[in-house]
Specification:
Layout: E1 2-3, H1 7-16, E2 22-25, E3 32-37, H2 45-54, H3 74-82, H4 84-90, H5 96-106, H6 110-130, H7 133-141, H8 146-157, H9 161-191, H10 205-208, H11 216-233, H12 239-261, H13 265-292, H14 303-356, E4 361-370, E5 377-387, H15 396-408, E6 413-420
Helix pairs in contact: 5-8, 6-7, 6-9, 6-12, 7-12, 8-9, 8-13, 9-12, 11-12, 11-13, 12-13, 13-14, 14-15
Length: 424
């Protein structure tokens, strides 16, 4: 919509850019005198809008951007060639105005957002307790969590404080609702005896993998954040990317609820750290990618405010992630230490048994570690040995004790159980 007094300037700007256009008179009697319609390559949208702002077309007027299926025009082809270098450098990057509009469109209404989050968390909880990966994946498809994370990042780089605050509020609400829904659903299952009595959730593979997060959690979250914002700023459908973001948030939030319902503090802690790290990493990666791609506020004098907000929020996110990464690093190191110790002890026990009697075999090995700060100390090793009938294994425990202590370099308690094995 061209306001009064700006028609000549707008037409001159379009002519200078070599753009095909149609200008029609506006007869509504308001402050607009004409309507201009013109096709643009994706890469040309933002620079042309910038030129039109100089001609007097700003956010106080009406500007509508729609996707065109096909444009047949020699001048349009020339325009595409002109902006081809920008297209190769920026890909299918959309304009700042389109980015804000898409971020707004991803944020569903409060009622729908809460309802879909509750349904997603309940399905994820059921999937975890059923130990069903397919059900857990299904819960991610309907989770509406991509919108708030992307809105917070976009709001920061374009200096839209309301969009940023709404994104942050919705993210906090989403995580809280998911955890609460999972907790209430898991409690209801216990009270109604819909799960086997004495069920230990930690014995379920889908639950136990959220018990001890390691640094690879960061890779998943950062990848989800980058993919989410790239899909948004290129105009690509964000549906599948939304599933990736839900992967990082919904199952661990459901695991937190299960930990609360079944009173398993270490599950609450482990899964809670996953949720926190994922939320922070998704926001940080999306924020950095947007700023790197050159998105800035519409008015140049607001760019300093946007830069200050970006640096402050990125620093806060980075520090929080670094603090939580200490926990992740400890868990990762402990997992490495456990694997290494078990491999060394298993080799030592196997060598000792082979030297003692070739017919004796190791059936099971269990290692108990104690301590509060990784790496934990190996305190007890339980060994189950299979031997033919009549085998004399007197002194086996002492022999294994000496071999294992020499291998790991510390004192341990050895417990040996001998099982008679007959083969026919």
């Amino acid at each position: 919509m061209i306001p009064a007094g700006k028609r000549a300037a707008v037409i001159r700007a379009l002519d200078d850019e070599g753009i095909d256009y149609v200008v029609t008179d506006e007869t509504s009697g308001r402050e607009y005198t004409a309507v201009a319609m013109f096709p643009l390559p994706t890469a040309a949208v933002e620079p042309v809008l910038e030129r039109l702002r100089e001609a007097g077309i700003d956010e106080s007027t009406y500007t509508v951007i729609v996707a065109a299926e096909t444009v047949i025009s020699r001048r349009f082809e020339a325009l595409e060639d002109e902006y081809e270098e920008d297209a190769e450098r920026g890909g299918d990057r959309i304009s700042r105005e389109e980015l804000q509009a898409k971020a707004d469109s991803l944020a569903s209404g409060l009622g729908t957002y809460v309802l879909m989050t509750v349904i997603s968390a309940v399905i994820a909880t059921a999937g975890l307790l059923l130990d069903s990966p397919a059900t857990v994946v299904g819960s991610m498809v309907i989770a509406p969590l991509i919108g708030p994370a992307m809105s917070a990042a976009v709001g920061t780089v374009v200096d839209d404080e309301e969009m940023f605050r709404r994104g942050v509020r919705m993210q906090i609400l989403g995580v809280a609702v998911a955890v609460a829904a999972a907790t209430l659903f898991a409690l209801a299952l216990r009270w109604l005896a819909l799960v086997p009595p004495g069920l230990d959730p930690l014995e379920l593979a889908e639950v136990s993998e959220r018990l001890a997060p390691n640094v690879l959690v960061l890779v998943v979250a950062i990848g989800a954040g980058v993919a989410g914002i790239v899909s948004l700023m290129t105009g690509v459908s964000a549906t599948l990317v939304g599933v990736m973001i839900a992967v990082a948030l919904i199952p661990p939030a459901a695991a937190v609820g299960i930990g609360i319902a079944f009173q398993i503090p270490r599950l609450v802690l482990g899964a809670g750290v996953i949720v926190a790290v994922n939320v922070l990493s998704i926001n940080l990666s999306a924020l950095v990618v947007l700023w790197y791609e050159g998105y800035r506020p519409q008015r140049w004098f607001r760019e300093d405010d946007a830069r200050a907000a970006f640096l402050k929020r990125a620093a806060v996110l980075a520090v929080a992630i670094a603090v939580l990464s200490v926990f992740l690093g400890g868990v990762t190191y402990e997992s490495y230490a456990v694997s290494t110790a078990e491999a060394d002890i298993r080799t030592a026990v196997g060598d000792e048994l082979a030297a003692l009697d070739s017919n004796v075999e190791l059936l099971e090995l269990d290692i108990e570690r104690t301590g509060t700060v990784p790496p934990l100390e190996t305190e007890r090793v339980s060994v189950i040995v299979g031997a033919p009938p009549g085998s004399d294994l007197t002194g086996l425990a002492d022999a294994l004790d000496g071999r294992v202590e020499a291998t790991i370099g510390s004192d341990v308690r050895i417990e040996v159980r001998i099982v008679t094995v007959e083969r026919a």
